[in-house]
Write a structure and sequence with these properties.
The two termini are 30 Å apart. The longest helix has 13 residues, at 107-119. The protein is globular and about 45 Å long. By secondary structure, it is an alpha/beta fold. It has helices at 10-21, 62-71, 86-94, 107-119, 132-139, 169-178, 192-203, 216-219, 226-233, and strands spanning 76-80, 99-103, 125-128, 145-151, 179-189, 239-244. It has a single domain (38-244), classed as Vaccinia Virus protein VP39 (Rossmann fold), CATH 3.40.50. The protein is built from 9 helices and 6 strands; from the N terminus they run H-H-E-H-E-H-E-H-E-H-E-H-H-H-E. A 6-stranded mixed β-sheet has the order 3-2-1-4-5-6, with helices on both faces. The structure holds S-adenosylmethionine (SAM). S-adenosylmethionine is lined by residues 25-26, 80-83, 103-106, 131-133, 151-154, 166, 225-228.
Length: 253
Amino acid sequence: MDFTWEELTPAQRAQHDADWQAGKGLIGGDPRKRPNFDTLPAWGMDRPFFRALALDDGRAANGLRFRRRTAGAHPLEIEIGFGRGDFLLDRAARMPERWFVGFETKTKAVRLALRRLEKRELENLWLSDDDARVGLPLAIPDQRADAVHVLFPDPWWKAQHKVKRLFSPPFVDLLAAKLRPGGYLHLKTDVEQYGEMVRHLLSRHPAFSEHTPELAARVGPYLPTHREHWCRENGKPVWACYFPKRAAPSTMA
Ligand SMILES: C[S@@+](CC[C@H](N)C(=O)[O-])C[C@H]1O[C@@H](n2cnc3c(N)ncnc32)[C@H](O)[C@@H]1O
């Protein structure tokens, strides 16, 4: 699971750090080097918020509470890049018996969603402004997730932006490690070639079976994300794919 992080000059690093402080989300370079990434921000203390590198920050009980919940038996669903959080907040409200975790690199969006989830008194949803490529390996135990939702990921088509693209062979390895056998990846996109690229990557991975449309029933009724809502309003087609993780191979002698 080795990601290729973009190399930055000191001037680029300073600009990217300023962008991150301004809450702009995905910035260049190794996300583990984002400023204060290993520290719990004052606004997140004792709220349903975590940073994977700050799980042991002793100034608040966030890490302890997050680990306890994650170690429990409730089925876990994860959303990566939740944006406004419409899908995730709605899903957590519909399924109080499930445990939900959301990653979104835009800190401003995370703070907004935190306020919304507290207002709705949702007890089963925690959020992080981690880059999921760093947060998932550190905060989520292997084979723990029942579903991972990735809804309308940024395509990042230009060659120089490729390192920011979420789906890559190491990212698919990461999904394979975190999903339990029988769990599934739920992808939606309005960029047909992106869907094809993801299908290509998944089809080559031994842990996943091919797209299984029937799994839409496991998602069930849902509130569309901001992007999906926009696509509906503007008559843009949307592609939905569901990839189940295969059951563990039998170990018969
Ligand atoms: C095109 S937006 C879609 C937002 C929302 N899912 C929707 O459908 O309206 C993609 C989102 O993914 C977030 N994102 C991109 N890469 C990410 C990563 N590696 N980890 C967490 N969030 C990421 C971006 O900040 C952005 O908000």
